Amino acid sequence: WMYAHAAAAAAASGKNVRVTLAAQEGDSEDTTGSLAELRLLPPYALFEISLAEEPRLKNSAIISLISEKLNRWPSSNIQELCITGRANGVAYAHIAAEAVRRGVERIYCWTPTDGSVLIYDRRQSSQIDPETFPDWLLNFLDPPKCPVVVGVLGDPNCGKSVLSLALNHYRRQLGIRGWRLDCDGASPTPDWYLSSLETNPEEAKEKRRAIKRPWTEAMEDQIAKRLHRLRDFFDIAIADLPGGDHSKSPPERVPKHREVILKEVDAFILLERVDRPTIAEWENELRNHGLSERIVAKLGSTAPEAEPCLSIQLDDSGVWCGQVSGLDRQKRPEHLVQGLKSGFQMMWPSLLKTMSAAGDASSVGGEEAAIPSRGRG
Fold first, then answer.
1. Measured between alpha carbons, how far is 299 from 162 in angstroms, rounded to an integer?
2. Are 271 and 163 in contact (CB under 8 A)?
């Protein structure tokens, strides 16, 4: 929404808009698998965009995808617009700038992490209101029946982010509406960091170090709120959970107040490095907070440089146990899923067991979007 706000303000003052992102620009012009949709309930409109993770598009292809829909802008007056979906700053900025040029009075951005933000008001072009949710937006909503939050939990550098990315890519292949949330507020692992590792790993690591910040209770409450918000809009949310405070001895895996994040999770996948076993410690922490019954899987990560493979079996308590290899940050999601798929298929029903009342999880469909639309699930 920050890109959209800046672009809208620039367009309102008659300036052209050009966006430069931290991540390297994609090199594909193939928009297959990417979604752009303009839905209208005059005087209101929703522009929903969801860019495919791979292959990453050129900026020109993103703008072309958007422009095709904007060219169908109705002759009737649209006074308010909401921009939503999984896309980068280029997409959000271009839509916002074009909306201002077409005379839209108010522009909102809606994302699962930040909710609804009023980023432009023609009467006060510099206004930002993070607490605004327009009533008309409810007409576009189609809430899930039995949402589930799955959390990947373990010590730092055990492969949590890579496993959660692979699990999210598998979810997309199944056509299940969902979202992946990086819950490490102090040291996030953003998508631009993972993509930049391929071309300039040292610069990517330095930029990531630069955005680190100390944990606060307000940050923990905000992340818990974001996870809770995802339940209103998605069938499944995948949480890449924080690994605790390891500057202390022994490490504080769940520092005071951090449990507010864990309590939002329905199913835990515990992950450890085989050469540094820590699952027992995490299991004790969850037990201390009354959450150990939510453990669905315990996995040992080994040989990140190897081909991805997930070998699991049920133990006597009904928890999936086994080993996973190939959790390397530089491996692409489709490569990871290709190797982990058979294990994911076995584990998936257990992860979504709370959805059983709504029927077979594999039948829950629809495109990924920040606001699931009516009739598309």
1. 13
2. yes
State whether residue 226 is helix, strand or coil: helix
pLDDT confidence of residue 368: 41
pLDDT level of residue 115 (50, 70, 90 thresholds): confident
Residue 250: phi and psi, rounded to 5, are -70, 165
Average pLDDT in the chain: 85
Q: What is the DSSP string of 149-163?
A: EEEEEESTTSSHHHH
Residues with Cβ within 8 Å of residue 169, at least 6 apart in sequence:
53, 333, 334, 336, 337
Do residues 144 and 235 touch, judged by C-beta distance below 8 A? Answer: yes
| DSSP-derived pairing of the beta strands 309-314 and 320-325 | antiparallel
- Tens of pLDDT along 318-372? 999 999 999 998 898 889 999 999 999 999 999 887 554 334 433 333 334 444 4
Nearest of 47, 51, 3 to residue 28 by alpha carbon:
51
- Beta-bridged to residue 299, according to DSSP, are 271, 322
Helical residues (DSSP H) of 140-266, grouped into ranges: 160-174, 191-196, 201-210, 217-230, 259-262
Range list of β-strands (E), 13-159: 35-41, 44-50, 80-84, 106-111, 115-121, 148-154
Return d(Cα 303, Cα 150) in angstroms, integer.
Answer: 24
298: helix, strand or coil: strand
Task: Write the DSSP symbol of residue 58.
Answer: P
